[in-house]
Amino acid sequence: MYASLRKRFRRRDFLSMADFDREEIEGLLLFAAELKEAKKRGEAHTFCAGKSLAMIFQKPSTRTRVSFEVAMFDLGGYALYLNAHDLQLGRGESLEDTGRVLSRYVDGCVIRTYRQEELEEFAQVATVPVINGLTDWEHPCQILADFLTIWQSKGRLAGLKLAYVGDGNNICHSLLLGCPQVGISIHVATPARYAPHPLVVERAKKLAKDTEVEVGEDPVQAVKGADVVVTDVWVSMGQEDEAELKRTVFAPYQVNAALVAHARPDYIFLHCLPAHRGEEVAAEVIDGPHSLVWEEAENRLHAQKALLSLLL
Ligand code: CP
Ligand code: NVA
After folding, report:
1. To test the ligand 1 pocket, which listed residue (56, 70, 134, 136) has its Cβ within 8 A of the most ligand atoms?
2. 2: pLDDT confidence band, cut at 50, 70 and 90?
3. Closest Cα to atom 8 of ligand 2
4. From the alpha carbon of 171, which atom of ligand 2 is closest?
5. Is the pLDDT of residue 1 over 90?
6. CA 40, 44, 48: angle at the middle one, nearest 5?
7. Is the N end or the C end of the chain the one with fewer CB atoms within 10 Å?
8. Mean pLDDT, rounded, for 27-50
9. Are 181 and 175 in contact (CB under 8 A)?
């Protein structure tokens, strides 16, 4: 399986959830599940032996940083954590020049930054694969882990209903672009002024063949009959100035026991983390029996190992 998948993925970028099609996402998840088993059995899986990965972070991170670093270690490669403030980037060197130079040293780059355009410009000049480690627009690596979690818990992806309640942000965008590809119907509920970008919704609807893409303001409507309920922080990194306003506007969108009572009795709850109990999610939900958030966080490692083994 690895050889044929690798032919398809090798040296490509992963900037958006829309970059991979259904067959590619499903192949990657199967491979991730194999790598997860290999690690549990203590078997070597050094698919990136002798390879190195540069990871540029312009924002803080726990999961993305650690899962990529450990992924490269497990795969027999080497990862460099580069805090943007400590690079010449912090003194005004352009992201493009940084990309040109890093491409001469490493076999792949992960970038966490603000604007999606910055990531795209970096990828344009870089001659090695570039991976989106989160922008304000998308967080596709998170959604690979979410799909692995959903698939391993429900035994399938196609035919499920996923409800996303909260901010129409990067997580919401990547879910909108990923769910239709794997046959999951997605229902989004956000306050009107924090709706996902219309371009993303339009693209999601084009990608949807036999699935629903519904975007509205009513959380109960979105969660009704859902197999998977997802939320994310109300105040994303870089939005701290809006914190007070957002906490007021989003109050009716908290994922709590009353809201999830509308989901299927066997629903699962996902959150990319970090979480704010008492804001976007009540402790009774995130710490309750339907929550798979720790499995989801672990799956970042396995999904990204598959990604790195195939792209680098
Ligand atoms: N979910 C996620 O990307 O977490 P970090 O911000 O800790 O990397
Ligand atoms: N929407 C959040 C996700 C964090 C992983 C943020 O951008 O801060």
Report:
1. 134
2. confident
3. 236
4. 1
5. no
6. 115
7. N
8. 97
9. no
One-letter identity of residue 308: L
Catalytic residue among 173, 203, 271, 300: 300
Convert the pLDDT of each residue in 237-266 to its tens digit. 999 999 999 999 999 999 999 999 999 999
Identify the CA nearest to 161 among candidates 117, 95, 110, 214: 214
Residue closest via CA to ligand 1's atom 3 equals: 64
The two tokens of residue 151 are: 């698939």
How many CA atoms, within 13 angstroms, populate the side-chain half-sphere of residue 283?
1
Per-residue pLDDT reduced to its tens digit, 220-232: 999 999 999 999 9
**Domain 2-138+299-311 part of CATH 3.40.50.1370:** yes
Mean residue pLDDT across the chain? 97
CA 61 to centroid of ligand 1, rounded, Å: 5
Q: Are 293 and 145 in contact (CB under 8 A)?
A: no
Rg (CA), the chain: 19
Q: Do domains 2-138+299-311 and 142-296 have the same CATH topology?
A: yes
Q: Out of 107, 232, 271, 302, pick the active-site residue.
A: 232
Q: Could you name the CATH architecture of 142-296?
A: 3-Layer(aba) Sandwich (3.40)
What's the pTM value of the predicted model, to 2 decimals? 0.98
Structure tokens at 170: 């990067």
- The structural domains of the chain, with segments of one domain joined by +, span 2-138+299-311, 142-296
Percent of the chain with pLDDT over 70: 100
SS3 content of the chain, % helix, strand, coil (to 5): 50, 15, 35
Residue 12 appears among annotated catalytic residues: no
| Angle CA 249–59–272, to nearest 5 | 60
Average pLDDT on 37-62 reads 97
193 has catalytic annotation: no
In this predicted structure, the answer to whether residue 142 has a pLDDT above a threshold of 90 is yes
